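ping. complex inputs:
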Amino acid sequence: MYGLNGTLSLASEALNAESGALAVTNNNITNVNTAGYSREIVNLSASALTGSGGGIQGNGVSYAGYTSVRDQVLQIAIQQKTADSGSLDAQSTSWTQIEAGFSSTTSGVGASISQLFSSLSSLSTAPTDAASRQSAFAAAGGVVSAFHQAASTLGSARTQADSNITGIVANINQLTAQIATLDLQLASSKAPGQDGGSVEDQRDQLTTQLAALTGVTSTTTDTTPSLSTTGGTPLVIGGTAFSLQVTKGSDGNTHILDAQGTDITASLTGGSLAGALTVRDTGIPQISAGLDTLATQFAAAMNAAQVQGFDGAGNTGTAMFTLPASGSAAAGLSLALTDASGLALSSDGSAGSSGNLANLLAVQTNALPAGQTPTDTYAGLVQSIGNASQQVSTALTASSAALTQLTTQRASASGVSIDEETTNLLRFQQAYTAAAKVVSVVNDLYSTLMNMGVGTP
Amino acid sequence: MRVNPDVYAGVNASIEQSEESLQTAMNQLSSGKRVAVPSDDPLAFSNNVQSLAQSAAIDTYTRNTNAVVAQAQLADASLSSVVTSLTQAVSLGAEGGNGTLTSTQRSSLAQQVQGLLASVVSQANTTSNGVALFAGTSGTVTAFVADPASSTGYTYKGNSASNQAQVGPALSTNVSVPGDQIFTSTSANVLGALQSMVTALQSGSSDDIASATVAVSSAIAHVDQVRAVYGSTVNQLTTEGDYLSQETVTLTSQQASLVDVDTATAITNLTQAQTAQSAILAMAAKILPSSLLNYLQN
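pong. complex structure:
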């Protein structure tokens, strides 16, 4: 059985609970635009009943803190999709850069090869015409510089992907250090199994940022949270961060090592780190190899046609192009002829003959050892670039759409709604007012009680 | 289910998306290209590379065709004046065959034929762009040079080969007929016939003059045959030229259909993108300022 004191203490519990609820609502409102913040809901519960039998009575409300609304499964899905998008985004950037170098229809390897054959063919009616010979000689130089240009476009995209790796790894180390600090904070502040509130929000946010750089797996063993790469290399365990390192390999590429110095380059998946590695180690080398094959076989075919004829001085023709002894054929290709008279147009040694043009021009229409004519080979190469770029950008669009959907899903569970918080604000305000009214009523009752027996004079 | 309370992100994404399609439509319309980079349509881009190479080849065939036709016409003009000279020589021969002429008169005729011979030789040495037209592939500037040791008085400095020009995907044509086949052919030696006419007129033998006249007449027939070869080359190349220009049109329209934008479609796309963007902006203006607080204030 309550007395007035009992009622008053119930009312003060209510005031306490409602002001706690108002504080939680306030926190939600202040964090409405905080990235990664999960909305908090207040935990109010009715206190245990007192009394027994017919005298059971409610014992007021108790304020039991708040709970952050979060969905761990969704969080993991977001991290995975972020890793996918990060990888595709890095690849797409590289491919966009590469295909820009192959998009011209008036310059480039294909156009310069056409130009060479056009100017050679024009010599068939006037093989001794100095100006026409000079323009054919210049066109041969044009083929060389077109191959150089294409090789340098690929080379610089590859170098850029390689140099990005160092920066990405530095960012990863910075993020893992921050996550380790948060893990220590969580270990000291929250009881096992409980929610870490906004610290946990921050950790999720940083983990998602980390996933954009490299794919990660989160696990919790015996309440100790740990993060590792998808390949199993530990990044953060129980508040300790393990830094990744980079080193220049003997192949000239940047390699990634774990804290113990083991090369983990091949095991990395997801994130912009894996994206840069894919472009550097798979995408560009394939195109470069195709370009080198074209350069090698085209130069060999032209050289073979040259030696079948005689140059302007009546000597047996010499090679038109020089292929490098090692390294990229496209990047190292050079013109072997020193002047226009070196073009071996003559089939019989006489200056006016253009009989060997048939052999030179046949290179244009005959299949190279690789199976196609030079122009078709180049067209195929450009198509591969286009396909690679298109594939990556289509996948990126799909991945971004999926990520947007997941983020929306997360926001619909964890996002702060101003309307909802406004409603809650009014609700808790009303409850607080009502509890305050109870205090005021009890106060009146006390006055009545105190004045009992005091007769009106 | 609770809805996503954050409408701002969605509105931002929608605006960005509509701006992107607006820009794509504008770029396509201003550049006239549907395929600007390989990834826009890898297959079309690669086919366009091949088609452009074919176009370049067709352009070259056209240039070669025109060059060969020009040379053939030049050669034909030379040979035409050679025939005129030979015809004059025949009539001079007929005149010289008249037994009543004095030796002085015949020697004057012989001089005239000598002059015709010189004119034929100068035609045989016609050059085009500094290259002898009738010297085969030797590249020499003078095809026939005076040589007292020779029976005709001239020696051929060229060769018997002929250059070929590619005038179609699978068609090559001879650029010229070598001079020895025209002027010093074993069957009908043009220069030899004229020289023998000169000798016959100088000697005054009517039999020699008669046989020299026959020889010059057959030389005319021979040169006419060569002219027919040039004529048929020109005819063939005119037909080829028509085919090539037809092919150019076909390839150009092929390239247009591969990479060019259809203007009507592009304009429709632009209009659609504009409409979509205005709709999204209007929607944003309506929903962004609204919240429960706006109503509670009143």
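The first strand of chain A starts at residue 40 and ends at 46.
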